[in-house]
Amino acid sequence: MLVKGTTRVCGVMADPVAHSLSPVLHNYMAEQMGIDFIYVPFRVDVRRVEEVLKGAYEMNLLGMNATVPHKQAILPYLKEIDRGAADIGAVNTLVRMEGGYKGYNTDLPGIKRALADAGVTQFAGREAVVVGAGGAARAVVYLLAREGMSRIWLLNRTLARAEEMAGHVNGIFGEGLVVPLRTDCWRQIPAGKYLVIQATSVGMYPCVEEAPVEDPAFYRLIDVAMDIIYTPAKTKFMKYAMEAGAEAYNGLRMLLYQGVEAFELWTGQTVPAEVSEGAYCLMERMLEQS
């Protein structure tokens, strides 16, 4: 990849950031599509996001991705926020505009496309369990509500955060749709089979021996499990779900598709299917080697 004076620069802000596969994804797509574009990692202290955004704009960055723990922290410092991202209350993609950056949430289409790859295309009449109440979980819950889930059980270690998110989503889609519970109160969920999405950082490298729930009985509730984590490729949450007979998927497809959506916002070009699949295979190989 030849970097020139005309090369447009994007990147990911995170803390930590060394584990991120986003630079691999975006630089591969740019190279395959012949776009004069480079994507780099930025380790950003969440307390300094205002300064970082001002500096990024002055340095002519085309855009950025934001991940843990920045998806909500950056909201006050954006020039504009897309309607969907505003409803979710979290942003993961920034696109340069006059005077600052506009915030989008490409996790939303990313999650939907990843679920479709896992065979989950029908939402109406189904129930789901979401673990977590951070920025990624907000997008998950919003998507499931928008797509017609009949009930969403929201588990979080801190009940107040789950209640805040449930109140926000129920205010948009109707009272009683999202039911907040403390994680250790999961037994209040009625017996049945659920789509369960793990949307916390629990179990992410290097803390690979952790899971949000350790009781094997919880995993017998699962029909399809998805963990937003992709390092390691098979989390302890996924292992528990598979041992209980469920299908389990990591977050690599979600990373792929949210990245494709962001890349298209920055470049104005559609990513061909063969390019996105090539990027996925490359990231998968890198995970296997790590």
Automatic annotation (TrEMBL):
<dbReference type="InterPro" id="IPR013708">
    <property type="entry name" value="Shikimate_DH-bd_N"/>
</dbReference>
<dbReference type="InterPro" id="IPR036291">
    <property type="entry name" value="NAD(P)-bd_dom_sf"/>
</dbReference>
<feature type="domain" description="Quinate/shikimate 5-dehydrogenase/glutamyl-tRNA reductase">
    <location>
        <begin position="115"/>
        <end position="171"/>
    </location>
</feature>
<feature type="binding site">
    <location>
        <begin position="132"/>
        <end position="136"/>
    </location>
    <ligand>
        <name>NADP(+)</name>
    </ligand>
</feature>
<feature type="binding site">
    <location>
        <position position="230"/>
    </location>
    <ligand>
        <name>shikimate</name>
    </ligand>
</feature>
<feature type="binding site">
    <location>
        <begin position="156"/>
        <end position="161"/>
    </location>
    <ligand>
        <name>NADP(+)</name>
    </ligand>
</feature>
<dbReference type="GO" id="GO:0050661">
    <property type="term" value="F:NADP binding"/>
</dbReference>
<feature type="active site" description="Proton acceptor">
    <location>
        <position position="71"/>
    </location>
</feature>
<dbReference type="Pfam" id="PF18317">
    <property type="entry name" value="SDH_C"/>
</dbReference>
<protein>
    <recommendedName>
        <fullName>Shikimate dehydrogenase (NADP(+))</fullName>
        <ecNumber>1.1.1.25</ecNumber>
    </recommendedName>
</protein>
<keyword id="KW-0521">NADP</keyword>
<dbReference type="InterPro" id="IPR041121">
    <property type="entry name" value="SDH_C"/>
</dbReference>
<comment type="pathway">
    <text>Metabolic intermediate biosynthesis; chorismate biosynthesis; chorismate from D-erythrose 4-phosphate and phosphoenolpyruvate: step 4/7.</text>
</comment>
<keyword id="KW-0057">Aromatic amino acid biosynthesis</keyword>
<feature type="binding site">
    <location>
        <position position="67"/>
    </location>
    <ligand>
        <name>shikimate</name>
    </ligand>
</feature>
<dbReference type="Pfam" id="PF01488">
    <property type="entry name" value="Shikimate_DH"/>
</dbReference>
<dbReference type="InterPro" id="IPR046346">
    <property type="entry name" value="Aminoacid_DH-like_N_sf"/>
</dbReference>
<comment type="similarity">
    <text>Belongs to the shikimate dehydrogenase family.</text>
</comment>
<feature type="binding site">
    <location>
        <position position="258"/>
    </location>
    <ligand>
        <name>shikimate</name>
    </ligand>
</feature>
<keyword id="KW-0028">Amino-acid biosynthesis</keyword>
<dbReference type="GO" id="GO:0008652">
    <property type="term" value="P:amino acid biosynthetic process"/>
</dbReference>
<keyword id="KW-0560">Oxidoreductase</keyword>
<feature type="binding site">
    <location>
        <position position="107"/>
    </location>
    <ligand>
        <name>shikimate</name>
    </ligand>
</feature>
<dbReference type="GO" id="GO:0004764">
    <property type="term" value="F:shikimate 3-dehydrogenase (NADP+) activity"/>
</dbReference>
<feature type="binding site">
    <location>
        <position position="251"/>
    </location>
    <ligand>
        <name>NADP(+)</name>
    </ligand>
</feature>
<dbReference type="GO" id="GO:0009073">
    <property type="term" value="P:aromatic amino acid family biosynthetic process"/>
</dbReference>
<dbReference type="InterPro" id="IPR022893">
    <property type="entry name" value="Shikimate_DH_fam"/>
</dbReference>
<comment type="function">
    <text>Involved in the biosynthesis of the chorismate, which leads to the biosynthesis of aromatic amino acids. Catalyzes the reversible NADPH linked reduction of 3-dehydroshikimate (DHSA) to yield shikimate (SA).</text>
</comment>
<feature type="domain" description="Shikimate dehydrogenase substrate binding N-terminal">
    <location>
        <begin position="12"/>
        <end position="94"/>
    </location>
</feature>
<dbReference type="InterPro" id="IPR011342">
    <property type="entry name" value="Shikimate_DH"/>
</dbReference>
<feature type="binding site">
    <location>
        <begin position="20"/>
        <end position="22"/>
    </location>
    <ligand>
        <name>shikimate</name>
    </ligand>
</feature>
<comment type="subunit">
    <text>Homodimer.</text>
</comment>
<feature type="binding site">
    <location>
        <position position="228"/>
    </location>
    <ligand>
        <name>NADP(+)</name>
    </ligand>
</feature>
<dbReference type="GO" id="GO:0009423">
    <property type="term" value="P:chorismate biosynthetic process"/>
</dbReference>
<dbReference type="Pfam" id="PF08501">
    <property type="entry name" value="Shikimate_dh_N"/>
</dbReference>
<feature type="domain" description="SDH C-terminal">
    <location>
        <begin position="251"/>
        <end position="275"/>
    </location>
</feature>
<feature type="binding site">
    <location>
        <position position="92"/>
    </location>
    <ligand>
        <name>shikimate</name>
    </ligand>
</feature>
<dbReference type="GO" id="GO:0019632">
    <property type="term" value="P:shikimate metabolic process"/>
</dbReference>
<dbReference type="InterPro" id="IPR006151">
    <property type="entry name" value="Shikm_DH/Glu-tRNA_Rdtase"/>
</dbReference>
